[in-house]
Design a protein that fits this description.
The structure holds two protein chains of two kinds. By secondary structure, chain A is mostly helical. Helices cover 72% and strands 1% of the residues of chain A. Chain A has a single domain, classed as ABC transporter involved in vitamin B12 uptake, BtuC (Orthogonal Bundle). A two-stranded antiparallel ribbon of chain A has the order 1-2. The relative contact order of chain A is 0.19. The model of chain A is unreliable at 332-339 (pLDDT under 50). By secondary structure, chain B is an alpha/beta fold. In chain B, strand 13 (386-390) and strand 14 (393-396) form a beta hairpin. Residues 17-41 of chain B have low confidence and may be disordered. The chains are: A mainly alpha, B alpha/beta. At the A-B interface, helix 3, helix 5, helix 6 and helix 12 of A face helix 1, helix 2, strand 9, helix 7 and helix 8 of B.
């Protein structure tokens, strides 16, 4: 059995059959419950928005993992910090027009969270650089708990408010294309995801620094011999990942009411997105996040099992790990040099 | 050299953060001060005038963090106010003229039944409390109720479900368990009346995937069906959800009104999602949103939301002849002065529960054993809280009713101009 499962064409065939069956099942259920194409379009659109935050968190996982081999579980906390900071900075009584105040809050929170990421690397990861990757992962889990507890002390348990970017109110401007409901913030979110992905791809493919990062990922020893400092690259990766997380938190701030303990949920979903990318491909992480968001939304919407959203995410996680551990796109292992 | 300094600096900062982080949850429960020898010191030492008797301890543990945090925080605040009051008055005096200090031990149940149960056990076994006041939400309270029943300690829950005080199978009262928060059955009765008035025939129900949300749903759906309305959609959601796949389904179901059973911020998130897609549909909530957190979180979107609340949140506008007015003003003034924030009904549950216990302790003579004290407190609450004006209404407890309120304890409210405004039945 495993021999057959191993061959490429059989696997492809099985995947195709499974996909067709799944789609047929979903359509049948939708027909049973009387949901038309409009409901599907709405679910998909909402799913793409919800998936965008998974995509951004997934990007952070990928950036750090591909350079250092560490899975940084504090990634979700960067999102929380970004959103909470933006909310409390905007809430300050500054003598600025609201638009400017929001811009200042957005930029200041992204910068601050980047600094937190850098401090985390220097303070907790760098001193343990000789330790095994597992140790470093455990350190990031410890950091997660520390960051969340600090946030609890600073902000308390109350939910915070970030206004919608377009009209600076809590009730966003709503577009109604074809009878669907689309908040203006969704456009901000999608634009941001596209920008961040484009910038990261450009950075990795076209700049010397980005290439140095990738060199570190491909072969740490060789990169070191070429004069690239892996420790500096690791610092850069953490800063970058923290910034991406904070950007996610900031643009998602108006959609959620940020709370000190929201990081975990996003961290786990973002991890699934990163696994779908084989932990190495930024494009894969974004695709994975969006697919996850849509699957969750359509899946729970059609079946009516709204309380089981997480089940969908973790079933996908298990399937990917079993069937395509190298990720959805991209072929062979391009991961870290195993030592 | 430079990088070493940087490394050292960051290390110090992170360690500081870590220490601060770890200290947070651990700091809540006061380290048990050496327990004053209980009955032994009772009689000796006849100093100047009032004789000082045993110190009574109350185990207080709302859900200050986790899912019930919005409820537990105001309750913890009230416990702190109560501590100050007790310190000022120097304790309470028993019927025999003996003065007792009352110590309120404040902990955090963390919205986690396991944490709550072990905190309750510690209060009962190590701190030797005379009563437990714990649990801001239902599942936590159920866990504590079990511990309290087993240890025979009076327990007052600040959560809403009737299942906390009564055995769901037999309907009999659990002898040691009481509750101060209004039941969802009474909320459902109000909702049904309002929906009938609106001429609604089919209802969509959304609830938070928590014990409170499910209890809201069970009560309301039974009441709605009983009143001849059709419940065409039910869907649970999580507090952290950003997307609501329920909304297209609600649109497809085509109901006349939506009822939400949740607490903020989840309640505000769900409200916003529905309001965005369906600008005109009436949305009705339970009493879990009777806190300004709901309006802060929802903003303009929750304008027009309706819900039943205790009128304590607008205490100063209540007629002076209302028997509960004095209690409400006492609670509201003290709370707002202490916290600088507007009152919520949740802090009031702590007010009611603590004053029940203190009222009971004032009747205890010196020289009782701990078990006798506990039994006496239980008996007092069961038999003497009759026509007792509390923040949640006029309590009338009895051996077969460990809750003592009915639906008249609520006032119907509407969110108008970012405020809770009473919307009495005559104006519907």
């Amino acid at each position: 059995m495993s021999k057959y499962l191993g061959t490429r064409s059989v696997r492809l065939g099985l995947t195709a059959v499974a996909t067709v069956l799944l789609v047929a099942f979903v359509l049948l259920l939708a027909y049973e419950n009387g949901y038309g194409p409009k409901a599907f379009a709405q679910w998909t659109m909402d799913g793409i928005r919800g998936g965008s935050i998974y995509a951004l968190v997934g990007l952070g996982f990928v950036v750090i993992h591909s350079v250092t081999g560490v899975i940084n579980f504090a990634q979700g906390e960067f999102v929380m910090l970004g959103a909470m900071m933006c909310a409390s900075l905007y809430g300050l009584d500054l003598p600025l027009p609201p638009v400017l105040k929001l811009a200042v809050a957005v930029i200041a929170s992204i910068v601050t969270v980047t600094v937190v990421g850098i401090l985390l690397e220097r303070g907790a990861i760098y001193p343990a650089r000789g330790a095994s990757v597992v140790t470093l992962i455990i350190i990031t889990i410890g950091a997660t708990i520390a960051i969340r507890a600090t946030a609890l002390i600073i902000w308390g348990t109350q939910a915070k408010i970030v206004p919608a970017f377009s009209n600076l109110q809590q009730m966003d401007h709503i577009f109604r294309p074809f009878g669907l409901t689309l908040g203006a913030q969704s456009l901000w979110i999608w634009g941001t995801v596209a920008l961040v992905l484009g910038a990261l791809l450009y950075f990795f493919e076209r700049t010397i620094l980005g290439k140095a990062l990738r060199a570190c990922a491909v072969n740490r020893r060789a990169a070191e011999l070429m004069g690239i400092s892996p420790s500096r690259m690791s610092l850069l990766a953490f800063g970058l990942a923290a910034a991406v997380g904070a950007i996610g938190g900031v643009v998602f701030g108006p959609v959620i009411r940020p709370q000190y303990d929201m990081g975990l949920a996003f961290g786990l979903k973002g991890f699934v997105a990163a696994i779908m990318a084989g932990m190495v491909s930024p494009l894969g992480a974004v695709l994975g996040g969006l697919i996850l968001g849509v699957a969750e939304n359509v899946g729970t919407g059609v079946t009516g099992l709204y309380g089981y959203k997480d089940v969908i995410a973790f079933v996908i996680l298990i399937l990917i790990l079993l069937l395509r551990p190298q990720g959805l796109i991209g072929g062979g292992e391009r991961g870290v040099e195993e030592s | 050299m430079k990088s070493k300094i940087l490394a050292a600096f960051t290390a110090v900062t992170l360690v500081a953060l870590l220490v601060a982080g770890c200290a947070a949850p651990a700091a809540e429960p006061e380290p048990t001060t050496p327990p004053p020898p209980a009955e032994a010191t009772a009689t000796p030492e006849p100093p100047p005038e009032p004789e000082v008797g045993t110190t009574y301890k109350i185990g207080f543990g709302p859900d200050v963090t986790g899912g019930g945090a919005n409820l537990g925080e105001p309750q913890r605040n009230w416990a702190e106010i109560m501590r100050e009051r007790l310190e000022e008055s120097g304790g309470i005096m028993g019927p025999d003229g003996v003065v007792h200090e009352v110590e309120i031990i404040v902990g955090d149940s963390e919205s986690n039944p396991d944490v709550a149960a072990s905190l309750a056990r510690r209060y009962v076994d190590e701190d030797e409390v005379v009563a437990l006041i714990m649990g801001s939400v239902t599942p936590i309270s159920l866990a504590i109720a079990e511990v309290a029943t087993e240890a025979e300690v009076p327990y007052i829950s600040m959560a809403s479900s009737l299942a906390i005080i009564s055995d769901p199978d037999t309907g009999e009262m659990r002898p040691w368990v009481f509750k101060v928060a209004q039941s969802n059955g009474d909320v459902a009765q109000w909702q049904v009346e309002r929906l009938t008035d609106l001429g609604v025939s089919s209802v969509c129900y959304m609830y938070e995937n928590t014990g409170y949300g499910k209890d809201c749903y069970n009560n309301s759906s039974a009441a709605l069906t009983g009143a001849g309305m059709e419940n065409v959609f039910e869907g649970a959601f999580e507090r952290t959800d950003t997307e609501f796949p329920q909304v297209p389904a609600i649109e497809a179901a085509g109901c006349d009104a939506v009822v939400i059973g949740a607490i903020p911020p989840g309640a505000a998130n769900a409200h916003l999602a529905i309001r965005t897609a369906l600008p005109d549909i009436p949305i009705i909530h339970g009493h879990g949103v009777c806190t300004t957190d709901f309006i802060t979180a929802g903003g303009e979107a929750v304008e027009g939301a309706e819900m039943p609340c205790s009128a304590v949140i607008i205490a100063e506008d209540i007629a002076a002849d209302n028997p509960a007015k004095a209690t409400w003003m006492d609670f509201k003034d003290a709370y707002e002065e202490y916290t600088g924030e507007p009152v919520s009904t949740f802090g009031g549950h702590a007010y009611d529960a603590l004053y029940w216990v203190i009222g009971a302790l004032e009747t205890l003579p010196e020289g009782l054993s701990l078990a006798e004290q506990r039994a006496a407190v239980r008996d007092y609450i069961e038999n003497n809280i009759t026509d007792w004006p509390g923040t949640a209404g006029i309590f009338k407890l009895a051996p077969d009713d460990h809750y003592g309120l009915d639906y008249t304890s609520f006032t119907w409210f509407e969110v108008e101009g970012q405020m809770f405004v009473p919307f009495p039945q005559e104006e519907w």
